[in-house]
Amino acid sequence: MATNLSDLAEERRDDLVKEKDAARTDLNEAQAPVSDKRKKHDELIRELASIDHSIGDTRRKAAVAHMPSDVEGLAATLRELMIQRRLKRRELLDTGEKLHELEGVRDRAQVHRDCVLARLEVAQREFDIAKQRQGRLKAWEEALKKAPFPNMKTEANKALTGPVFKAARARVKGDIPEKLQKRATQRGTRELAKVAACRVAALGAEDLRESHLEKINGPAGKVGKLRTQLSRVEQALGDYVKHSKAKFDLAMGMLAGVASAMPELTDDERGRIADAGLVAAGEAAVTAEKVRDKWRADAESFKSEIETAVMELRAADPDAVVDADEGVAALRKKLADLDVPNADGESLPKAEEAYNAVKADLETWEASIPEHIWANLVAFNQAEELLTQLKLADRAMLEAAVPAAEKELVAAMTVEHKVARIDALLKTAVEKRSGRLDFFEKNERCRVLSAVRGDD
User: Fold this and answer.
1) How much is the pTM?
2) Do 259 and 171 form a contact (C-beta atoms < 8 A)?
């Protein structure tokens, strides 16, 4: 049994090629009997019409006959013709039934042939895509064996302790007071964390929907869910292969740029930045801002938890009364409590108020730093983040995740395919029997009368 998408696509395509040949054979074999039975049916109609004509002619002759012997002979002839007509009608009914059955076989064979051709066209495209994907994965596999990937973690780790990194860090630390520099870095980290949190939330919502589709659609829903999972791990591996070296080179270039950035601070600029009064007021404002941001972070966390809880609640029951849910109510209370002073008299509004009171002092201190110095800090932080990502990246895990997810998907697709085949067989059975029912319902009166008369 196939364990990867390429082999599975090839199996499906080859099976459909065989099914196409069989379907064409079935259609060809179904067409000749229909033609023969149609001719027989038309012949019976003509014979029945001839008998009807003879019956009419005999009745006209009997109407004008005067001799008893003539009348009696014509009556005998008429009885014989009536029997022939009943038998011919019954034969016509039976032939019509058989013709309807053969036409159904032919029509279903034609529909099946057309369906197989369409499926084969899709299967060929899927096979081509699967082969391209397999080639891409093979290229990634080969690339990972070559420089710089085998030593990427080591190189990134060395870079984080190397002379270029140290020079860039010294430049940043020498230009921006430590407390302000750390606070600025924390702000940047906070924004990156927001992006990461949004990514996690988006993936969580997608996972919840995929689980719902799996629940209502069975095997097809599971295939969709596993396709999504494979897409994620494959994208992660591809990003690592395609962008790791570029990230490393970018990080090293940024660090070198920071270390040698011009212009340097003038003595006057350094004097303003290090002004004792400005520093003291600014450091106090930094502390107030950190306290305010901690309260804000708690509020954002509760809001996110509430949003997730409501989403999961409505996913389980779209008619659920959110306000009556104890879990949601508890989270809403925690969020509301942030606005109420705690035992130490602290709250989000008080933290906002305390920061706003000293905000201008921090802004004045920040404004003493030239724009290009801030750009240096951003570049340094970005470079450090890129190198840290490369240092922590687990290449072996990324490589192993793809075939594992692929194998699971192939197994689910095999189950789905079997279910689809069963459905197709049952659909054909329904169409066949429904067609037969329709034929007998339309001819019910004639067949009952023929049966009662004993025509068969």
Assistant:
1) 0.83
2) yes
